[in-house]
């Protein structure tokens, strides 16, 4: 079949243009789906890094807070 064909309505239908448009639509749809996946992965990585930062902060401050509370408790019992 050639590039165009004659319709019963006496108008030309461009098969190559239609095929190109469908191909473009599929490519754009695939790109959008892939971008959403990449965005989800990026958000997951950011959430993971924030969780690691919180864990490290709590562990680093945990001992200092425990000793601070022990000191305060000791000061309250002295009188």
Automatic annotation (TrEMBL):
Q: Which organism is it from?
A: Acidithiobacillus ferrooxidans (strain ATCC 23270 / DSM 14882 / CIP 104768 / NCIMB 8455) (Ferrobacillus ferrooxidans (strain ATCC 23270))
Chain segments annotated as transmembrane: 43-63
Q: Which UniProt keywords apply?
A: Membrane, Transmembrane, Transmembrane helix
Q: Which domain of life is it from?
A: Bacteria
Q: Would you tell me the protein name for this molecule?
A: Pilin, putative
Pfam families for this protein: Flp_Fap
């Amino acid at each position: 079949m050639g590039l165009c064909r004659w319709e019963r309505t006496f108008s030309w239908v461009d098969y190559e243009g239609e095929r190109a448009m469908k191909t473009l639509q599929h490519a754009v749809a695939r790109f959008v789906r892939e971008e959403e996946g990449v965005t989800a992965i990026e958000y997951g990585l950011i959430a993971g890094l924030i969780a690691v930062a919180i864990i490290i902060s709590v562990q680093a401050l945990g001992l200092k807070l425990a000793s601070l509370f022990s000191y305060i408790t000791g000061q309250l019992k002295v009188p």
